[in-house]
Structures are given as structure tokens and as C-alpha cells.
Amino acid sequence: MPDRDWIIIITLGFLWGTSFFFNEVLLREMGPLGVSFARVAMAAVFCWIWLFATRCSPRVEMRLMPQFAFLGVMMFAVPFAVYPIGQQYVASGIAGIVNALTPVMVVIVSHFWPGGERATLLKSLGVLAGFLGISLLTVRAFASQEQSQVWGTLLIVLAPVSYAIAMNYIRRLYSINVTVVLAWSFSFATLFMLPITGFIEGLPTSLSLVTWAAIAFLGCILTGASFLVAFRILPRAGATKTSTVTFIAPVSAVLIGYFVLQEELGALHFAGMGAIFLGLLLIDGRLFKRFSIATARSN
């Protein structure tokens, strides 16, 4: 994969890590489902504006609509709801760390997906390291009988699973313009979240200017624009390597949570993050391959 794409992935990782901070800001005035609805709705508006600004035709065959709907629900509606729900019980930094499980889940799903990337020994060891990381994140909550933190952490794990399914499913849409795919997918995600949010929480009203600014930045920049960039490199990079963007996200999520939100993180949290990072290095494999090549040459 070109170095340019790795630079893009690293940049997206730092940006997406800040989304957990914005979730915390929005949760002060909105329910978690409202956060998801506002995020996908704003992203949909952004993508439709971008679509017409670049003079792309939004016309697609009707048979593709169910595929856009499925992608919108699995890639956007579900994860964007799961994270703020879980963040009511765990710190934003922990949510960012759990998000780093995405490549681990992609390896598992891709192995069984028709035409997907098969798991190697290194990738399998990476999966084990990832699950070790989740265990370390929840062990203190189990020991202290803080069941809400345990369930909050495990709930957030559903987001990487949902991402993994969506990133394999999107293969069938590679031939379609990325902006068209995202505009329709975000629109279906919005339609999916609208009745659920309205029935359970009611639609948000009387929001402060800060909250509206957070919605705009989260929806337009961290979601609409960022996914436009990510989806453009996905076909050439592959689902597994593109998903390693979550290797970077926990760093900014933890730093912002610690310095801005004054969230408390213990040694086990950093140990869990270390195990997940080790898993990602194993899944990527390049560092270990270079080490084995260097060892062979020295011998």
C-alpha cells in the first residue's frame, strides 16, 4: 500500500479518536440515540451537498437500494448508537480503545466471508491478543462488581463487529461512485434512526450553540468528509489494512479524555490498549516479516 495511504489512515485515526470526545459533549444535552441520529443526518446532508457540488449523478438502480440500506445500518446507524450508549457507563478513552478491536473483528469476519481475506497464523495470534486486551479492560470492573462498566464495554464491542460486517459487505459496491454510496447509505441510516429515536427518546430540541457546533463538526467533518476519504482508499488497501485506522484512534481518544475530560485511566486500561496494539501489529504483519528477514540475513 502506498505511503500516502498510510498517511491518510493515520490522519483519519487521530480525527476519529476525537469523535468520542464529541459524543461526551453531545450526551450532556442529548440521548445516545439522538447523538446517532444527528450524526448520520448531518453526514447525509454533507454528502448530498458534496454530490451535487461535484456534479455527480445520484441515480442508481433500484435493486441497489436494499444494499445501501444494509450498509447504512451496519456501518453507521448501529455503531454510532452503540458508542454513545456505552459511553454513559465507560470513559471516552476506553471506548476509543475498544474501537481498536475493529481490525481484529475484520480478520474474523473476512476469514469466513465469501471471497474475503483468509486469516494467517500472525492474524490469528492478533485476534487472540485483541481479546486479551478486552479482558484486561473489563477485569477491574468485574473485580469491583461494577457491572454497568462491564456491560458498557461489552456493548461497545458490538460496534467493531458491525464495522467488520459492513467493510466486507461493501466489496459488492466498489464499482459505484463513493459519494453516491455514502449519500444513500447515510440517508437510509437517518431514516432508520428517526423513528427509533423519536419513539424512545423524542427528537432533541432547544440545543445550545455549543451542541449544534459539535453536531456539525462530528457529522460533517468526522463522519461525512472522513468516510468519503476512507472509502476511496478502501478498494486498493483492503478491509483489514483500512480498518487499522482504529490503531491510531485510541491515542487521541485517551489523551483528550485524560487532559480535557479528566477521565481516570488505570494501568490495566493501558495494558489492555497495549495488548490490542500488539494484536494490530500481528494482523498487519509487516514488522514481524521485516524482523524475520533481517534475522535470516544475519544468519
**Global outline:** globular
Decide which structural class fits the backbone.
mainly alpha
Radius of gyration: 19 Å
Q: Tell me the β content.
A: under 5%
Low-confidence runs:
none
SSE ordering: HHHHHHHHHHHHHH
Distance between the termini: 29 Å
Number of helices: 14
The biggest beta sheet reads: none
**How many domains, in number, for the residues?**
1
- What is the count of β-strands? 0
What value does the average pLDDT take? 83
Structure described in brief:
The protein has 299 residues and is an all-alpha fold.
Description:
This protein is mainly alpha-helical and 299 residues long. The protein has one domain (3-298). The chain contains 14 helices and no strands. The chain has helices spanning 3-17, 19-26, 32-53, 65-86, 92-99, 102-112, 121-143, 147-169, 178-200, 209-237, 239-243, 249-259, 267-284, 286-298. The chain starts with a helix and ends with a helix. The relative contact order is 0.22. The model has no long low-confidence stretch (mean pLDDT 83).
Task: List the topology elements.
Elements: H1 3-17, H2 19-26, H3 32-53, H4 65-86, H5 92-99, H6 102-112, H7 121-143, H8 147-169, H9 178-200, H10 209-237, H11 239-243, H12 249-259, H13 267-284, H14 286-298
Helix pairs in contact: 1-10, 1-12, 2-5, 2-10, 3-4, 3-9, 3-10, 4-8, 4-9, 5-8, 5-12, 6-7, 6-8, 7-8, 7-13
Index terms:
299 residues, mainly alpha, 0% strand
